[in-house]
Amino acid sequence: MGNVKIVTDSTADLSKEQIEKYSINVIPLQVTFGTESYADGVDLSPEEFYRKLTSGTELPKTTQPSPEMFRQTYEQSAADDIIISAHISGKLSGTLNSAELASKMVEPKVVLVDTKTASQGVGRSVLVAAEAAQRGLELDRIMEVVNKSIVQTFSVFAVDTLEFLQRNGRIGKAASLLGSLLQIRPILYADPEGMVAPYDKVRGRSQVIPSLVNAALKKVSPDRPINLSVVHTGAEDSAHKLLKELKNHYQIEDLHIGMVGPAIGAHIGPGAVGLMIQPSFETLLK
User: What is the 3-state secondary structure (H, E, C) of 109-161?
Assistant: First the structure.
């Protein structure tokens, strides 16, 4: 058996350090403002994206990578290599379909993984796969740990405005208007089927962080070490406040805090904050 290579897409919101540590191949989605198209994370940074998002009037659109992009990446591996290609939920994007089409065109064995989530929820399971591969685990054992990771990774977030959910067809105009008038902040999560679903709703920003912390505590016990990602869409202060509260409850083995990239930010808008939490790698190995 050759080497195990890891491939994902830009919705995983991996940091440069995470990518370099494991030599992960990241295939970008496309983000389009009007006639201008950008490769997510390549020629459009999160900071640039949110500046354009808040200063313009046109809603950005996102496009999944083509099968050809995946094929070219897969073919960089030797014929006896194994590729673990882990991606955003197939219920949220056609990215996994493109990967599947490309996997049938190449010699290396490609193992496709639907993480059933988005942003660093994807990233967390990708990092588990990468760590397991780096430790030299056999493929069956790697996939056992990755599948456990998918089930035990919890992604929950709060949006600051209902406008982008409404403009993307997730809720109706009346619900958006009523929510804005009542200062309602929906708490959303990635459900077991890979869909974004309501988890809770709170009135006012002050209740957002307590709700997110309570959601984490209900899902992942504080009596074992965790891996944690805290993410935001231009709400850095809220992200740090959330992290501070979580540190009061958890022993954090691996931590990431950063911005949600353009491909996901286009659908939730600015001011959102969330977390992705899973048991530590050593716990998942048990």
Answer: EEEEEECCCCCHHHHHHHHHHHHHHHCCCCHHHHHHHHHHHHHHCEEEEECCC
**DSSP-assigned beta bridge partners for residue 156:** 189, 275
CA distances, 103 to each of 7, 84, 99, 141 (Å): 12, 11, 6, 21
Separation of alpha carbons 59 and 96, rounded Å: 24
**pLDDT tens column, 218-241:** 999 999 999 999 999 999 999 999
Q: Which carries the bigger pLDDT value, residue 183 or residue 18?
A: 18
Match 């919705």 to its residue by tokens.
11
> Are residues 142 and 132 in contact, defined by beta-carbon separation less than 8 angstroms?
yes
Residue recorded with tokens 């010699």: 107
| High-pLDDT (> 90) share of the chain, % | 79
- Domains observed in the chain: 4-151 (3.40.50.10170), 154-285 (3.30.1180.10)
Q: 3-class DSSP state for residue 206?
A: helix
